[in-house]
Amino acid sequence: MPKPRVPRPTAKRLSLYLRELEAQQDRGQPTSSSKQLGTALGLTDAQVRKDLAIFGQFGHPGIGYKIPELIAQLRKILGTDRSWNAAIVGAGNIGRALMPYARFRRKGFEIVAVFDSDPAVIGSVIAGHKVRPMSDLPQLVRERNILIGIIAVPAAAAQQVADALIKAGVKGILNFAPIRLEVDHHVSVDSVDFLLSLEQLAFQVSLGLAGSLDERDGE
Ligand code: NAI
User: Fold this and answer.
1) With bands split at pLDDT 50, 70 and 90, how would you rate the model's confidence at 209?
2) In whole angstroms, what is the distance from residue 39 CA to residue 45 CA?
3) Is the CB of 165 under 6 A from ligand 1?
4) pLDDT digits (tens, 9 = 90+) for 56-79
5) d(CA 36, CA 49)
6) Residue 30 gets which letter from DSSP?
7) Which atom of ligand 1 lies nearest, measured to the CA of 95?
8) Three-state DSSP class for 219?
9) Other C-beta atoms within 10 Å of 9: how many?
Protein backbone atom coordinates (compact mmCIF):
# COMPACT_ATOMS: atom_id res chain seq x y z
CA MET A 1 0.00 0.00 0.00
CA PRO A 2 1.45 3.45 -0.84
CA LYS A 3 2.35 5.58 2.20
CA PRO A 4 -0.27 8.32 2.76
CA ARG A 5 0.93 11.91 2.58
CA VAL A 6 0.55 13.27 6.07
CA PRO A 7 0.32 16.99 6.84
CA ARG A 8 2.71 17.99 9.65
CA PRO A 9 -0.07 19.28 11.99
CA THR A 10 -1.81 15.90 11.60
CA ALA A 11 1.41 14.06 12.45
CA LYS A 12 1.77 16.19 15.61
CA ARG A 13 -1.82 15.42 16.59
CA LEU A 14 -1.19 11.67 16.17
CA SER A 15 1.41 11.91 18.94
CA LEU A 16 -1.12 13.74 21.11
CA TYR A 17 -3.77 11.08 20.44
CA LEU A 18 -1.29 8.40 21.41
CA ARG A 19 -0.34 10.18 24.63
CA GLU A 20 -3.99 10.70 25.56
CA LEU A 21 -4.89 7.07 24.76
CA GLU A 22 -1.99 5.86 26.93
CA ALA A 23 -3.30 8.04 29.77
CA GLN A 24 -6.81 6.63 29.30
CA GLN A 25 -5.38 3.10 29.31
CA ASP A 26 -3.47 3.85 32.52
CA ARG A 27 -6.80 4.87 34.05
CA GLY A 28 -8.15 1.42 33.15
CA GLN A 29 -10.35 2.53 30.26
CA PRO A 30 -10.83 -0.20 27.59
CA THR A 31 -12.33 1.96 24.83
CA SER A 32 -12.38 5.56 23.69
CA SER A 33 -14.16 7.72 21.15
CA SER A 34 -13.38 10.61 18.81
CA LYS A 35 -15.45 12.84 21.07
CA GLN A 36 -13.53 11.82 24.19
CA LEU A 37 -10.17 12.28 22.47
CA GLY A 38 -11.27 15.58 20.98
CA THR A 39 -12.55 16.93 24.29
CA ALA A 40 -9.35 15.94 26.10
CA LEU A 41 -7.20 17.67 23.48
CA GLY A 42 -9.32 20.70 22.67
CA LEU A 43 -10.20 19.42 19.18
CA THR A 44 -13.48 18.59 17.47
CA ASP A 45 -14.44 14.93 17.12
CA ALA A 46 -14.64 15.56 13.36
CA GLN A 47 -10.95 16.54 13.38
CA VAL A 48 -9.99 13.37 15.25
CA ARG A 49 -11.98 11.19 12.82
CA LYS A 50 -10.50 12.99 9.80
CA ASP A 51 -6.92 12.57 11.07
CA LEU A 52 -7.34 8.86 11.80
CA ALA A 53 -9.20 8.20 8.54
CA ILE A 54 -6.01 9.00 6.61
CA PHE A 55 -4.60 5.71 7.88
CA GLY A 56 -7.62 3.43 7.91
CA GLN A 57 -10.77 2.49 9.71
CA PHE A 58 -10.05 2.02 13.42
CA GLY A 59 -13.43 2.48 15.09
CA HIS A 60 -15.87 -0.35 15.88
CA PRO A 61 -19.60 0.33 15.53
CA GLY A 62 -21.23 0.71 18.93
CA ILE A 63 -17.87 0.43 20.74
CA GLY A 64 -15.66 3.24 19.47
CA TYR A 65 -11.91 2.69 19.50
CA LYS A 66 -10.47 -0.29 21.35
CA ILE A 67 -7.66 1.49 23.18
CA PRO A 68 -4.91 -1.22 23.01
CA GLU A 69 -5.64 -1.70 19.30
CA LEU A 70 -5.52 2.01 18.46
CA ILE A 71 -2.38 2.51 20.57
CA ALA A 72 -0.67 -0.31 18.63
CA GLN A 73 -1.77 1.18 15.30
CA LEU A 74 -0.63 4.69 16.21
CA ARG A 75 2.75 3.41 17.41
CA LYS A 76 3.14 1.60 14.11
CA ILE A 77 2.18 4.71 12.12
CA LEU A 78 4.51 6.92 14.18
CA GLY A 79 7.37 4.42 14.01
CA THR A 80 7.54 4.14 17.80
CA ASP A 81 6.68 0.43 17.81
CA ARG A 82 10.41 -0.14 17.32
CA SER A 83 13.43 1.24 19.13
CA TRP A 84 15.56 4.10 17.81
CA ASN A 85 19.18 4.70 18.61
CA ALA A 86 20.00 8.35 19.15
CA ALA A 87 23.12 10.43 19.77
CA ILE A 88 23.43 13.70 21.67
CA VAL A 89 25.96 16.21 20.40
CA GLY A 90 26.86 18.81 23.02
CA ALA A 91 27.34 17.71 26.62
CA GLY A 92 26.53 21.11 28.15
CA ASN A 93 23.49 22.24 30.14
CA ILE A 94 20.88 20.92 27.71
CA GLY A 95 22.76 17.75 26.77
CA ARG A 96 23.35 16.85 30.44
CA ALA A 97 19.72 17.47 31.28
CA LEU A 98 18.62 15.08 28.53
CA MET A 99 21.03 12.23 29.26
CA PRO A 100 19.44 10.85 32.44
CA TYR A 101 15.88 11.22 31.12
CA ALA A 102 14.52 7.68 31.57
CA ARG A 103 11.30 8.26 29.62
CA PHE A 104 13.33 8.31 26.37
CA ARG A 105 14.11 4.63 26.84
CA ARG A 106 10.59 3.74 27.92
CA LYS A 107 9.33 5.34 24.71
CA GLY A 108 11.81 3.44 22.55
CA PHE A 109 14.55 6.08 22.18
CA GLU A 110 17.94 4.93 23.37
CA ILE A 111 20.79 7.40 23.79
CA VAL A 112 23.70 5.26 22.61
CA ALA A 113 26.39 7.92 22.13
CA VAL A 114 27.28 11.40 23.33
CA PHE A 115 29.74 13.69 21.56
CA ASP A 116 31.43 17.00 22.35
CA SER A 117 34.36 18.98 20.98
CA ASP A 118 35.70 20.30 24.30
CA PRO A 119 38.77 18.35 25.47
CA ALA A 120 37.82 19.22 29.06
CA VAL A 121 34.51 17.34 28.65
CA ILE A 122 35.60 14.49 26.38
CA GLY A 123 36.19 11.29 28.34
CA SER A 124 33.94 12.28 31.23
CA VAL A 125 31.00 10.04 32.10
CA ILE A 126 27.61 11.69 32.51
CA ALA A 127 24.59 9.68 33.60
CA GLY A 128 26.39 6.54 32.44
CA HIS A 129 27.33 7.99 29.04
CA LYS A 130 30.97 8.45 28.10
CA VAL A 131 31.48 11.69 26.17
CA ARG A 132 33.28 10.98 22.88
CA PRO A 133 35.28 13.27 20.59
CA MET A 134 33.64 14.41 17.35
CA SER A 135 36.24 12.41 15.42
CA ASP A 136 34.52 9.22 16.69
CA LEU A 137 31.14 10.32 15.32
CA PRO A 138 31.19 8.83 11.80
CA GLN A 139 32.26 5.39 12.98
CA LEU A 140 29.95 5.22 16.02
CA VAL A 141 26.91 6.44 14.08
CA ARG A 142 27.47 3.62 11.62
CA GLU A 143 28.35 0.92 14.15
CA ARG A 144 25.52 1.73 16.55
CA ASN A 145 22.93 2.29 13.83
CA ILE A 146 22.19 5.81 15.05
CA LEU A 147 19.40 7.37 12.98
CA ILE A 148 18.50 10.27 15.26
CA GLY A 149 20.81 13.09 16.33
CA ILE A 150 20.04 15.55 19.11
CA ILE A 151 21.87 18.84 18.68
CA ALA A 152 22.64 20.71 21.92
CA VAL A 153 25.58 22.88 20.86
CA PRO A 154 25.77 26.69 20.51
CA ALA A 155 23.97 28.10 17.46
CA ALA A 156 27.24 28.94 15.73
CA ALA A 157 28.25 25.25 15.70
CA ALA A 158 24.86 23.69 14.99
CA GLN A 159 24.94 23.61 11.18
CA GLN A 160 28.40 22.07 11.12
CA VAL A 161 27.27 19.44 13.64
CA ALA A 162 24.12 18.74 11.59
CA ASP A 163 26.26 18.28 8.47
CA ALA A 164 28.53 15.83 10.31
CA LEU A 165 25.56 13.85 11.64
CA ILE A 166 23.89 13.65 8.22
CA LYS A 167 27.13 12.71 6.48
CA ALA A 168 27.50 9.86 8.98
CA GLY A 169 24.00 8.54 8.20
CA VAL A 170 21.62 10.24 10.64
CA LYS A 171 18.13 10.71 9.17
CA GLY A 172 16.36 12.76 11.82
CA ILE A 173 17.55 15.70 13.91
CA LEU A 174 16.11 17.18 17.07
CA ASN A 175 17.58 20.66 17.19
CA PHE A 176 17.82 22.65 20.42
CA ALA A 177 20.03 25.39 18.94
CA PRO A 178 18.18 28.58 18.01
CA ILE A 179 18.95 28.48 14.29
CA ARG A 180 17.21 27.09 11.22
CA LEU A 181 19.21 24.17 9.90
CA GLU A 182 19.71 23.68 6.16
CA VAL A 183 19.28 20.00 5.37
CA ASP A 184 18.53 17.76 2.40
CA HIS A 185 14.93 16.78 1.80
CA HIS A 186 15.62 13.19 2.93
CA VAL A 187 16.46 14.38 6.46
CA SER A 188 13.78 15.40 8.99
CA VAL A 189 14.38 18.19 11.47
CA ASP A 190 12.31 19.09 14.48
CA SER A 191 13.27 22.06 16.61
CA VAL A 192 12.65 22.67 20.28
CA ASP A 193 12.69 26.25 21.44
CA PHE A 194 11.63 26.97 25.02
CA LEU A 195 12.34 30.67 24.50
CA LEU A 196 9.97 30.87 21.56
CA SER A 197 7.30 29.18 23.68
CA LEU A 198 7.97 31.58 26.56
CA GLU A 199 7.71 34.55 24.19
CA GLN A 200 4.40 33.24 22.90
CA LEU A 201 3.16 32.84 26.46
CA ALA A 202 4.31 36.35 27.38
CA PHE A 203 2.52 37.69 24.29
CA GLN A 204 -0.71 35.92 25.17
CA VAL A 205 -0.60 36.82 28.86
CA SER A 206 0.35 40.47 28.26
CA LEU A 207 -2.51 40.97 25.83
CA GLY A 208 -4.95 39.01 27.96
CA LEU A 209 -5.36 36.65 25.03
CA ALA A 210 -5.17 33.38 26.95
CA GLY A 211 -7.67 30.95 25.49
CA SER A 212 -8.87 33.38 22.84
CA LEU A 213 -6.28 32.90 20.09
CA ASP A 214 -7.54 31.20 16.95
CA GLU A 215 -5.67 27.89 16.69
CA ARG A 216 -6.22 27.69 12.92
CA ASP A 217 -3.62 28.99 10.49
CA GLY A 218 -4.44 32.42 9.11
CA GLU A 219 -5.40 32.39 5.44
P1 NAI B 1 26.45 24.81 26.78
O2 NAI B 1 27.42 25.86 26.40
O3 NAI B 1 26.23 24.48 28.22
O4 NAI B 1 26.85 23.43 26.05
C5 NAI B 1 27.18 23.35 24.71
C6 NAI B 1 28.14 22.19 24.52
O7 NAI B 1 28.38 22.06 23.13
C8 NAI B 1 29.48 22.39 25.21
O9 NAI B 1 29.81 21.26 25.99
C10 NAI B 1 30.45 22.58 24.04
O11 NAI B 1 31.74 22.07 24.32
C12 NAI B 1 29.76 21.79 22.95
N13 NAI B 1 30.17 22.20 21.62
C14 NAI B 1 30.42 23.44 21.15
N15 NAI B 1 30.74 23.41 19.84
C16 NAI B 1 30.72 22.11 19.46
C17 NAI B 1 30.98 21.43 18.25
N18 NAI B 1 31.31 22.11 17.14
N19 NAI B 1 30.87 20.11 18.24
C20 NAI B 1 30.54 19.41 19.35
N21 NAI B 1 30.28 20.00 20.55
C22 NAI B 1 30.37 21.33 20.59
O23 NAI B 1 25.09 25.20 26.06
P24 NAI B 1 23.60 24.83 26.52
O25 NAI B 1 23.16 25.79 27.55
O26 NAI B 1 23.52 23.37 26.79
O27 NAI B 1 22.81 25.15 25.20
C28 NAI B 1 22.99 24.31 24.07
C29 NAI B 1 22.18 24.86 22.92
O30 NAI B 1 20.80 24.84 23.28
C31 NAI B 1 22.50 26.30 22.56
O32 NAI B 1 22.39 26.44 21.17
C33 NAI B 1 21.42 27.09 23.26
O34 NAI B 1 21.16 28.33 22.61
C35 NAI B 1 20.27 26.14 23.11
N36 NAI B 1 19.22 26.30 24.08
C37 NAI B 1 18.01 25.94 23.63
C38 NAI B 1 16.92 26.01 24.42
C39 NAI B 1 15.66 25.59 23.81
O40 NAI B 1 14.59 25.88 24.31
N41 NAI B 1 15.72 24.92 22.70
C42 NAI B 1 17.00 26.49 25.80
C43 NAI B 1 18.33 26.79 26.21
C44 NAI B 1 19.39 26.69 25.36
Assistant:
1) low
2) 8
3) no
4) 899 998 899 999 999 999 999 998
5) 11
6) -
7) 26
8) coil
9) 13
| 110 close to 136: Cβ distance less than 8 angstroms | no
Structure-derived torsion over alpha carbons of residues 148, 149, 150, 154, reported in degrees to the nearest 10: -160
Q: How many Å lie between the centroid of ligand 1 and the Cα of residue 95?
A: 7
State the average pLDDT over residues 24-38.
96
210 lines ligand 1 (CB under 6 A): no
Q: Where are the domains of the chain?
A: 8-78, 84-194
Please give the Cα distance from 166 to 151 (Å, whole number). Answer: 12
Q: Indicate whether residue 10 lines ligand 1 (CB < 6 A).
A: no
CATH of domain 84-194: 3.40.50.720
Whole-model pTM over 0.90: no
Angstrom CA distances, 117 to 12, 25, 26, 177, 187, stand at 33, 44, 42, 16, 24
Beta bridge partners of 109: 84
**Model confidence pLDDT, tens digit, residues 129-152:** 999 999 999 999 999 999 999 999
pLDDT, one tens digit per residue, over 79-118 is 889 999 999 999 999 999 999 987 888 888 999 999 999 9
What class has domain 8-78?
Answer: mainly alpha
Is pLDDT of 171 > 70? yes
C-alpha–C-alpha distance, residues 94 and 99, integer Å: 9
